[in-house]
Structure formats: structure tokens, C-alpha cells
Input
Amino acid sequence: MDKLLYLTHTRPDISFSVSYLSQFLSKPNDKHFEGAKRILRYIKGSISVGIFMPTVSDFKLKGYTDSDWAGCLDSRKSVFAYCFYLDNSLISWKSKKQQVVARSSAEVEYREMALGACEAQWLIYLMHNL
Output
């Protein structure tokens, strides 16, 4: 599983699947093993997929956030995600289950927008230093 987690740094398309499977590392069963094999088959069939970084850039940062209220069917916790692009190149992304069960969809949206804003602020700070 460690190698799959490492691979998510360059393959954001498998991030959600790998993070979902990693929840069950302490007590895996046959369904989880089948899920891991399915991810490996997908990777084998899509070797050429990856992150494209062009040589010319206008340094325009764009960010998107999204969440789903009580999206995890196992724990009823919400799952949130964000991604940031530098022009058309994906430079930062995250998909994670929230720590607490939210009472409303507005609470979930507020939490994920706050986390997305923190990431945007950090990226702007990083770009100024570079």
C-alpha cells in the first residue's frame, strides 16, 4: 500500500481509491484485496497518464473545492476535496474524509472552503518565495 500512496503524488486520478483502501489496512479482507488489484490493473492500462507541466506559464492560480454531505457510507462523514491549477497544470490536490460528522451541508461547505483557502494562501506564499 505504501507504493500506491507514493504513486498518488504523480497520479491524482487514483488518490481517492487509494485513500479509501488505506482506511482498512488494520483489518483487510478479500474485497479490499480485489480493490487493490483493480487499482493495479487500472495503473497498468494507463501508464501514459500523468501530470503535464508546460514550459511556458502565466502563473495564474486557479482553485476548486467540493464536498459531499455524509458521503462516506461506512461512517456517514463528509468527504471534501480541492485542487489547484497553475495555468492548466495541476499542482496541488487533496481528497479527505472530515474528522467529525457534520450536521448540515452548509457546515461541510464552510469547512472545505476554509481548508481550500488555507491551501491557496500557502501556495501564493510559496510562489512569492520562489
Remarks:
- The chain has two domains: 2-45, 61-129.
- The beta strands are 61-68, 79-86, 89-97.
- The two ends are 33 Å apart (CA to CA).
